[in-house]
Amino acid sequence: MMLRTLCRRSAAILQQTQQSAPRLWVTPAQQRWASTLPMNTVVLFVPQQEAWVVERMGRYHRILEPGLNFLIPVLDKIRYVQSLKEIVIDVPEQSAVSLDNVTLQIDGVLYLRILDPFKASYGVEDPEYAVTQLAQTTMRSELGKLTLDKVFRERESLNSNIVHSINQASDEWGIRCLRYEIKDIHVPPRVKESMQMQVEAERKKRATVLESEGTREAAINVAEGRKQAQILASEGEKAEQINRAAGEAQAVVAKAEAKAKAIRLLSDALTEQNGNAAASLSVAEQYVSAFSNLAKQTNTILLPSNTGDITGMVTQAMTIYSTLAKTTPATSVEAAQVKKEELPDFLVSPEEQRTQ
How does DSSP assign 85-130, residue by residue? Predict the structure, then answer.
């Protein structure tokens, strides 16, 4: 009973002293904290993720841990209550000038966490306000290092630079900046119009480049097709010429073999009985055939002096033949062919002249 009575009297005295204190002596930060400060009821239960800073006779005493805690009435006073959860602060919109002298309106969101309740309570008057102002000034300085195009492309690096700069200054306040995110970036209307025109020009440029690349690829494909067609045509012509040459060679060989066979048969026939008479008959026929073809192909005609003496012509041809038969008996078909070429042109048939 005595303890309960003592607690009630101490609470009443504390309330009277707070009500009787002049308002001019209390700062805005103290008013904010005083509105949420718990009273000293001797037995206190501190919630999880909260730190209560206790002063004894106006001097820092200790920080209450979550759970059950005991305080001395009148002497101990809960001065600050710090939340150890992650705090989200909305950074108001502000103007900043980029490196290329473009005025931007930027706002963001700041994520904080208190790591040291003692520094957060006694290191700075209002930690949230201090961090917000630091984030705004840091954002202005970081934006002044970038051009307008890089501000949109390097938002992630810009956020990381702002967080790094804030953490360098907020270590003395016991506050850790976890991340900073830019919400909106507003540009002047004229700058927005010029950016839109730039985007359209860039798209037209890409379209033109792609169209030119397509035309180039098409021209290259057409040239490659023509090249392959010419190569295939030349290979086909080459094969055709090879086949034609092979056929002509085979035809020449076949004609030569047929002529050789005919010469052999002729030589065999001349060695038989009445072979000379047959030779005379053949020479006479060739003579008559040769005179029948005169002046059919050209206008130039060469006539022997004894054109009308057929018997003399035949006799002369047979004399040449008898001389060849005596000097070179029928031993070689090639020798007989050479001697036959020495005969007068009018004794050789047109077919043999074309063959020769």
Answer: SEEEEEEEEEEEE-TTS-EEEEEEEEEEEES-HHHHHHS-S-HHHH
